[in-house]
Amino acid sequence: MSDKAPTIDQLQELALPPAISYTPQTWGWWLLLAVVLLGALWWGVRYYRQWQRDRYRREGLEQLEGLLGLLGDHSQQIVALRQLPELLKRVALSMPDRPAVGNLGGAQWQAFLERTSREPLPPDFSRQLAHLAYAPEHQLLELAPEQGQRLLALSMRWVETHHVAA
Q: What is the spatial distance between Cα 133 and Cα 122, in angstroms, rounded to a whole number?
């Protein structure tokens, strides 16, 4: 045995292990990968279709938010209140299953709104909407701002959450 310590010149590089492939080695992993990819594709297509189907909701909510801004302006209050019932009817007509709501009014319109709503609506909701559409301007000016905002909030909640038959 030698007392001399090895020098750096005597060091040798260690052999590296062979590279390990990251590709699956058995058919089961390929099958699992295919199932996961197909599931992700199915979910993506389904999500995209639902997103496209709910486009009318997004547009309706955007217009309702515009009405909310108009409702804050006293000079535009009547315009905003008059547009609210028409906007709700347009949203209902744009629903994917195309319900025949164009000629509904009064109790039938109220029944439709309640049937499709996920939350309870006031029993006179359709009457209040008809009042907004047809009342003389001086009656709309006498309407309390809180009542207009409440009707707008109820309408927004209905547009956000109403049930559509799939």
A: 18
| Owning domain of residue 133 | 53-161
Domains of the chain: total: 1
> pLDDT band at residue 25, thresholds of 50, 70 and 90?
confident
Asked, for residue 86, whether it belongs to a domain, the answer is yes
What is the DSSP track for 28-57? Answer: HHHHHHHHHHHHHHHHHHHHHHHHHHTHHH
In this structure, how many other beta carbons lie within 10 angstroms of the beta carbon of residue 159?
A: 20
pLDDT tens, 87-113? 999 988 888 877 787 788 888 888 888
CA-wise closest residue to 155 among 104, 105, 108, 116: 116
3-state SS string over 57-125? Answer: HHHHHHHHHHHHHHHHCHHHHHHHHHHHHHHHHHHHHCCCCCCCCCCCCHHHHHHHHHHHCCCCCCCCH
Burial status of residue 62 (CB atoms within 10 A of its CB: 0-12, 13-18, 19 or more): exposed
